[in-house]
């Protein structure tokens, strides 16, 4: 397969989005409906937006990996309390990780996205 920008890949049976802000939540339901050749009224869009909200996802056992994390704790593979969905606050890691760890993460990101189509994405700007 040729190396192409992930934004240019157009597969008939796949749709992808970056979940990074409220703009996504407002636009994604309509994009999915269009992709599926379906129509959604405003009430359906609002309902889906509520379902896709951070708080809803965080409390949904179908996506929050709660059972998996509990099994990991049971076998002592996770020693701290925590959850797959944490706070939903952008940049919260800066309050929770040491400066040394953040530097190591930034160096890893620079090394591993350099020269790829991800290099220009805002999420990877360090």
TrEMBL record:
Belongs to the sulfotransferase 1 family. Keywords: Transferase. Residues 31-116 form the Sulfotransferase domain. One of its GO terms (molecular function) is sulfotransferase activity. InterPro entries: P-loop_NTPase, Sulfotransferase_dom. This is Sulfotransferase domain-containing protein. SUPFAM superfamilies: P-loop containing nucleoside triphosphate hydrolases. Pfam families: Sulfotransfer_1 (PF00685). The keyword Repeat does not apply.
């Amino acid at each position: 397969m040729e190396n192409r920008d992930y934004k240019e890949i157009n597969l008939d049976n796949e749709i992808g989005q970056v979940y990074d802000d409220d703009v996504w939540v407002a636009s994604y339901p309509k994009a999915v409906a269009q992709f599926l050749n379906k129509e959604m009224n405003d009430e359906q869009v609002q309902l889906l937006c509520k379902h896709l909200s951070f708080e809803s996802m965080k409390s949904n056992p179908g996506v929050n990996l709660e059972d998996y994390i509990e099994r990991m704790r049971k076998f002592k593979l996770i020693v701290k309390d925590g959850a797959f969905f944490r706070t939903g606050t952008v940049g919260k890691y800066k309050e929770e990780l040491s400066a040394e760890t953040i530097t190591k993460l930034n160096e890893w990101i620079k090394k591993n996205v350099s020269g790829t189509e991800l290099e220009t994405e805002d999420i990877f700007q360090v």
